[in-house]
What does this fold into?
Amino acid sequence: MESGILIARLPGTKQDAKTLGFVAHLDTVDVGLSGDIKPQLLRYEGEPLILNDALNIVISEATHPELAKYRDQDIFFTDGTSVLGADNKAAISVMMTLARELKETGKAHGDIYFAFVPDEEIGLRGAKVLPLERFPVDHCYTIDCCERGEVIYETFNAGGATLTVDGITAHPMSAKNVLVNPNLVAADFISMLNDMGKPEQTAGREGYFWVTDMSGNQNRASVSVAIRDFDQESYNQRKAYLETWVPSSKPNIRKPD
Ligand SMILES: [Zn+2]
It folds into this structure.
């Protein structure tokens, strides 16, 4: 165990078989709705499903078209007030079930390594310190999102930026040509990003900016953006574009004599 990483080996039962590895992350994303999780197992038959009667939270194919693939199946949902945490508890279940199945059925296999890592959701920190010398596999699979049966073999370049705007506040009666409203500068910034690709309008290898957080008052505003792009050159251009919003040098302010 190091940095919360857990590695286990299921000894092989077949000589000369390839060594396989499976990895899952233990942590769950925090989107401000990660408190008290109340899972429920519901059968989805194509009609909108009531997740939470008291709060009138309903899930349907109109807002979640991916549901269509899972008609007439039992599905775990939250009660609509929190994330479910299936990312990535579902993968942990898959790996533990695989280990149990192999042990119980006696099917032939080579050595199989399982690794559980923390802190994926805050910048892949667990994966970056996975001790590969203790994970000697021929092939490895990370079990994580998305659709059932989907295999992802490539990933994007990822980074993030936070733009902080310091405004100049003034009484509105004497604000003309003086007041700089940081909220409006932040809104201009976001509207510029609007046409440069966003997750809800892109697919496949298309890059995007994803505005993940914003806050502001009359003194200061802040916008956080995730940058994602498969193409390295395009990714660099996206970073360079964000930097154009930051003055290259501080104003030269002379102290009074
Ligand atoms: Zn995940």
User: Anything to note?
Assistant: The longest helix spans residues 86-105. The helical segments are 86-105, 125-128, 182-193, 232-243. The chain has three domains: 6-28+86-142, 40-77, 157-243. The pocket of zinc ion is lined by residues 25, 87-88, 120, 144-145 (CB under 6 Å).
